[in-house]
Amino acid sequence: MGKIAVKARYHKEPRKLDDDLRLTPQVLGTGLNGNVLLAVSKSMPTQKYAVKSLKLQGRPEEHTQRLLREMEIFLSLDHPRIARLHEVYESKHRLDLVMEYMEGGELFDRIANKKGVFPEEDAAMAIWQMLLAISYIHAKGIVHRDIKLENWLYARKDGNLLKLIDFGFSRQCDPNKKMGLACGTLSYMAPEVFHHSYTSKCDMWSLGVTAFSLLMGYMPFKGSAQQQARDIEQGKYILRPEKWDQLSVPAQDFLKSLLQVDQKERLTAQAALQHPWIATMIKEQPGIDDSVVDALREFGQASIFRRCCMAMMAWNLSYDERHEVSAYFTALDAAKDGHITRVELQAALQDRYHVDEDEVEQILDAMDSNGDEEIHYSDFLAAMVSTKIVMHDETLKATFQKFDTDRTGCITEKNLREVLGDKFNGVRVNTLMMDLSLSKHNQMSYREFEAYLRSRPLTPPSSFKLTKVKPRTRQRWLQCLAWCSV
Description:
Number of helices: 22
Mean pLDDT: 88
Low-confidence stretches: 462-467
CATH class of the largest domain: Mainly Alpha
Radius of gyration: 25 Å
Distance between the termini: 40 Å
CATH topology of the largest domain: Transferase(Phosphotransferase), domain 1
Largest sheet: 6 strands, mixed
CATH architecture of the largest domain: Orthogonal Bundle
Number of strands: 17
Strand order of the largest sheet: 1-5-6-4-3-2
Number of domains: 3
CATH superfamily of the largest domain: Transferase(Phosphotransferase) domain 1
């Protein structure tokens, strides 16, 4: 995913959680590792986060190292339908995970509030969003292994945007090898999990159970643990005719296609997205517009250091700012696998907007932050900053502080090297700021940073006095300042 996506958001001592966030006593949830607490950003008071702490003390070294590797994987998850892991703080005794605050609550609670009645169209929209998230993680070789109603949260109380959470049981796996550890939640487990030989298709069975619950209003497997396990292995789910007969035939077929005991016969996430029921129920998503194309073109022509700053800013955007443009990303992602390829970008820009091949290449190269020939969600967000997304003062300050790692009030070459490594987009860090007119060599103050990103001349500070110059000179200065502010 590149340095900014992972290294810049993983902090070790002396950098601590308290440097950036204020923990509140409000408990958002409770898990195996204790309470999840609400936290507020010190630099952006309107930004709220959910913080979970994992103890490192007492863990075997092998377990600790595996956990740290997993954190790197989870930091790289970058999709509009997956709750973000924003930051990780590592200290001697614990890991503090700063996660996206999902104020809308669990899908499970939303169903309960509707007394189990979830209209087929609403259920299809929810399941479509789930499929986008699962298709993405499967494309990255990650298996969740605990897909269930409780692990889908709504971003907002008054909205319908769902996101996947809790990757505690997930793992990265070789598609040619089967997993053996039986884990997850019993009533959602796939039959093959009981036999300790399964693939990523186990997530699709669990999605089938989730979809069944949404559409039918009850769980497909009930009873004691032994009875549930027996019924799951036989694919013997509970069918109530008065509920089943109310479903459309495509919806019935969709459920049957997921709750297949033979995992070879079960739909993949990609195939499920193309199922007639999903294709019919989900209205065509809006395409990109002129302003999106203009933003992509402008980003393609931007300097490397500006793109670097925008890439960092993309990880500091609020939910509302991301949500404003996320539908455009999904529209460009024709395969719905969570990233935009060269072919997809070229098709979108050439067919309707007649952007020539060389410019498409320039845009792709600018947005491809880690050189994998793909545009990820945050790459897209970076391109939208300053054109489709307003650069608020809070966002600028938070982004500046990400680079100002030692809190000196200036961004130095040393800071950039700590965040980016030796290079960014193939350019050595020591040359990134060379073309900028800085007051001090290779050192950028916040005022210079703000003026640079807002593309405006650097004005004198508010304390600057013009009283000790000749009246004519003073008048010219004021005229110049007035012109610069237009």
